[in-house]
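Sequence design from tokenized structure. All designs in this work follow the same two-part layout: the structure record, then the generated sequence. An example of the structure record is given first.
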């Protein structure tokens, strides 16, 4: 399992490439837990992830490479939030 970190703060809009990520050998599932319109904050200020990747294989190196290939398929659209001017 690998957590999908939030690359930048803002409002989560969408994710592309989930089907391609799932199609990678050894990848069992891609679970995106972020919801459209949700404000996301990256670590260390934030306390959540965009989702998780799950893979299973015979050795840790092949699983790690599968997770990296799957993550490379994912493209997140996150729009900036407006600054609080008050």
């Amino acid at each position: 399992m690998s957590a999908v970190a939030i690359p930048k703060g803002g409002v989560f809009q969408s994710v592309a490439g989930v089907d391609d990520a799932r199609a990678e050998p050894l990848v069992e599932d891609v679970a995106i837990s972020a919801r459209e319109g949700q404000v996301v904050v990256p670590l260390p200020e934030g306390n959540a992830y965009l989702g998780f990747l799950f893979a299973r294989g015979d050795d840790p190196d092949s699983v790690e490479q599968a997770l990296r290939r799957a993550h490379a398929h994912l493209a997140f659209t996150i729009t900036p939030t407006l600054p609080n001017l008050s």
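The radius of gyration is 14 Å. We note this feature because it recurs in several other targets discussed in the main text.
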